[in-house]
Amino acid sequence: MRWVLRILGVLVGLVVLVGLAVALIPTERIAALAAGEFRKATGRALTIGGSVRPTVWPELGVRLGEVAVADAPWAGPAPMFEAEALAVGVDLAALVSGEVRITGVEAVAPVLRLTRAEDGRGNWEVAPPGGAGAAAPVAGAAAPVADAPAAARRPFSLDRATVAGGRVIYRDDAAGQVFDLTDLALETAIPALDGPVSATVSGRLNGAPLTARIDLARLSDVLAGRVSGIGADVALAGATARFEGRAGGTPTSVEGRIALAAEGLAAPFAALGLPAPDLPRGAGRDRLSLDAGLTLDAAGTLYLRDMVLTLDDNRIAGAVDLATGGDRPRLTADLAAGALSLPAAAESPAAGGGGGSGGGAGGGWSTAPIDVSALGLLDATVALTAEGIDADPVALGRTALLARLDDRRLVIEIADLRAYGGRITGEAFVNGRGGLSASADLDASGIALQPLLSAFAGTDRLLAAADGRVRLLSSGASVDALVRRLSGEGRIALGEGELRGLDIAGMIRNLDPGYVGEGQKTIFDSVTARVTIADGVLRNDDLAFTAPLLTAAGRGTVDLGRQSLDYRLTPRALPGADGTGGVMVPVTIAGPWADPRIALDLESLAEQRLKIEEEKIRARAEAELQRQAEDLGITPEADESLQDAAKRKLEERAEEVLKREGDKLLRGLLGGN
After folding, report:
1. Which ranges in 198-255 belong to alpha helices (H)?
2. What is the model's pLDDT at position 458?
3. Which of 212, 460, 484, 574 would bridge with 454, disulfide CB 3.0–4.6 Å?
4. Residues 572/554, Cβ–Cβ less than 8 Å
5. Rounded to whole angstroms, how far apart are CA atoms 382 and 436?
6. 467 or 513, which is more confident?
């Protein structure tokens, strides 16, 4: 934007020239001379539409009426610069001694129109006719002096410059943005080109209030494109920014400390002509601040050190690097936070609009599309430690993560994650290349199941700490699709705990299905199981349940997509102290997991009762047979059943009878001989 300063410098120089010539040349000749010199220097037409009123004493000066500078032909018909009046005063005594000391510059209702074309050209880029490059200096002009060698510079100063009722319009055709700064008021002074300069600005940017103060260590360094100390304070629509450091050079580099603060982003973004980001609670939606050491090197890489970032109630400290070269920006960060409060899944913009429930507490999983386009905005490596993360329904304790994002594929290494009284380690993947897929390989120990299941499944019936491992894989465009396509395997082991709402021991001892509901519970010592998951359906065939009064085995399915169970638990009540009990009664658990139907398997119970009665009848029959056998003198030999012994005894008796009767018949036939 140094060309803007050059154009203004040429204007000031021409006004000085007009003041020197005013006593000798008529007014209209003065205007024509100034316009001609301006065209020679810039290639743009200068129109002086009003009167030219000179002053000679006590200071040399001139006041011009309406002034206009033509715009570039491609930028439009309106002037690039116009003002209702322009006045310049020069210290005549200083001018005679070789010093340009401007006592005052006043612009009344100036309008500056700046335009950047789609091809990157700016309408402020000017060149004299017949050649490219910088314009030739005009006697007394301020801007060219800054580019001259130090030995050839004429001393220059500006006591006071003011702008009242001004306007600056910046149009970026490539970005489709327009910035309109109205009610512009500016005040500055330049004691010396090689000294410090300050300027204050106020106005309304796209209707929003704007105030700014800029402090430059050396104006000559800025005009020459060299590094200079700089300080800036800006307030726009309730947002503030402060920078203190150094900037400049070719290419430009920046080094210093920056502080930003905003109470909401809607107003400042609207003032900048940009749509406000749809941030969730906890990500700076209502309050945002940043304090950091900032370095922007010549390659365009941004470094933030000793950073403290506040996003609503979240405070994050650390260091951030952002490199803008390559196919995508690359972010590298090492961050530490206290307790983080993040949005619930239903609040997150990534969850999309309507189309389903936000969770699994009995209302179905959300069918809203999950937007993962943000994974393609940059590549990143981020290390994060936090004292806790609260993102309803997720509640985590101390967390140490390393996230790597490479071409829309996110890998999260979980070095240490404290959750629900236990610890989780492992890896999780989110792949946004051509759709959404996700996987996880996690180890868990000491996880309290009651708060976990209450948060994710809407049930608080199971109280126990669990150890286990799970491997999961899924793909889909929504939470509902991800759950229904879930596959994997896992194992789980529970220690001592209780199952609320069901007294299994009482149910099977009394053969009464009424031991269900409020106040009922089953105390257990351990539970172990292995599971497989396919198409969102979890299957288990080897559940082993041990309790003080019973043992149980179980098998069945849990349909995660439909949030329902179909499970069969086969408990066996242990005999009591009096020797009674030992009954085995299957229990069925079926229906929605938020309110399952729990019942005794009466058909199985009837079959079991029939079998018992059959055994009793058989036992009585065997006892009666044994008694009769004893009466008949039937005694089984070793490894011989009672039936075989009776058969043997019968055969022996038959042989005896046959022998005896045969002997009688034979003696009768032989006549006793």
Report:
1. 219-223
2. 73
3. 460
4. no
5. 21
6. 467
Look at residue 32 and give its three-state secondary structure.
helix
Domain boundary among the residues 169, 193, 217 is at 193
Winning range, highest mean pLDDT, from 3-7, 243-247, 460-464, 629-633 = 243-247
Residues 494-507: tens digit of each pLDDT:
999 888 877 777 77
- Indicate whether 474 belongs to any domain: no
Among 193, 217, 247, residue at a domain's last position: 193
Regarding whether 105 and 169 lie in a shared domain, the answer is yes
Contacts of 150 (CB under 8 A, 6+ apart): none
Q: For residue 574, tell me if it sits in a domain.
A: yes
214 and 185, same domain (yes or no) = no
The neighbouring-strand residues paired with 384 are 335, 401
Q: Determine the Cα–Cα distance for residues 458 and 470; give it in Å rounded to an integer.
A: 21
- What is the biggest distance separating any 2 CA atoms in the chain, rounded to whole angstroms? 193
Residues 50-67: b if buried by 16+ CB within 10 A, e if exposed = bebebbeeebbbbbbebb
**Greater model confidence, 101 or 296:** 296
pLDDT digits (tens, 9 = 90+) for 369-380: 999 888 999 999
Q: Please give the pLDDT value at position 427.
A: 96
Determine which helix (DSSP H) or strand (DSSP E) holds 558, and give its type and residue range. strand 550-559
Looking at the structure, tell me whether residues 649 and 559 fall in a common domain.
Answer: no
Same domain for 666 and 577: no
Contacts of 338 (CB under 8 A, 6+ apart): 314, 315, 386, 387, 388
pLDDT greater at residue 393 or residue 398: 398
Q: What strands lie across the sheet with 516-524, from one edge to the other?
A: 462-463, 497-502, 516-524
Q: Is residue 180 part of a domain?
A: yes
For the ranges 98-112, 263-277, 383-397, 588-602, the lowest mean pLDDT is seen at 98-112
| Residues 180 and 279 both lie in one domain | no
CB-based contact 461:499 (threshold 8 Å): yes
Whether 399 is in a domain gets the answer: no
Cβ count within 10 A of residue 248: 18
Tens digits of residue pLDDT in 23-34: 444 556 656 766
Tell me the average pLDDT across 130-138. 43
Both 189 and 210 in one domain: the answer is no
Number of structural domains in the chain = 4
Neighbours of 234 (CB within 10 A): 16
41/70 same-domain check: yes
ω into 343 cis (within 30 of 0): no
Average pLDDT, the chain: 80
Residues 177 and 213 in one domain: no
Give burial (CB, 10 Å; 0-12/13-18/19+) of 261. Answer: middle
Burial of 250: CB neighbours in 10 Å, binned 0-12, 13-18, 19+: exposed
- Residue 225 structural domain: 206-325
Determine the residue type at 474: S
